[in-house]
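A brief tutorial aside. Many learners find it easier to grasp structure tokens once they have seen a single protein encoded end to end. The record that follows does exactly this for Mitochondrial 2-oxodicarboxylate carrier. Read the sequence first, then the structure, and try to relate runs of similar tokens to stretches of the chain.
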Amino acid sequence: AFAVAGLGSGLTEAVVVNPFEVVKVTLQTNQNAFTEQIIKTGGLGSQGLNKGLTATLGRHGVFNMVYFGFYFNVKNILPVNKDPNLEFLRKFGIGLVSGTIASIINIPFDVAKSRIQGPQPVPGEIKYRTCFKTMATVYKEEGFLALYKGLLPKIMRLGPG
């Protein structure tokens, strides 16, 4: 139940967050771009503000599904500690492990999202179009570990959360 709730919250979060991610990635890679330009050139669809939505749905849905499913199930198994400091450490430890596992499982979606929303390798040619095709291309051209680029900073950011 917790995993399904996490998946639902992650998918909802992704739909809300994705347009902002498109703007963020565009501004990070092209400082002259503005939101109005993104909408004018790509509209609201898969080449505009909703570029990479499937990858963002995967990123947020999978993360939240694994995180909440693991966190609440393990939290209910491990006994509560009466000492507030030890109880904090128990919850922090479970959260850290949950965030780390969730990050490891969902980072291929994150890599795909960044490739789809970021600049394409050849200007004017769209190489990274869909989530799973992007993952397959990255795997085929760069190897399995390329799907895990940026994992350590991601764990350092999301693990403690």
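Self-check: Residues 1-159 form a domain with the Mitochondrial carrier fold fold (CATH 1.50.40.10). If you spotted this yourself, you are ready for the next section.
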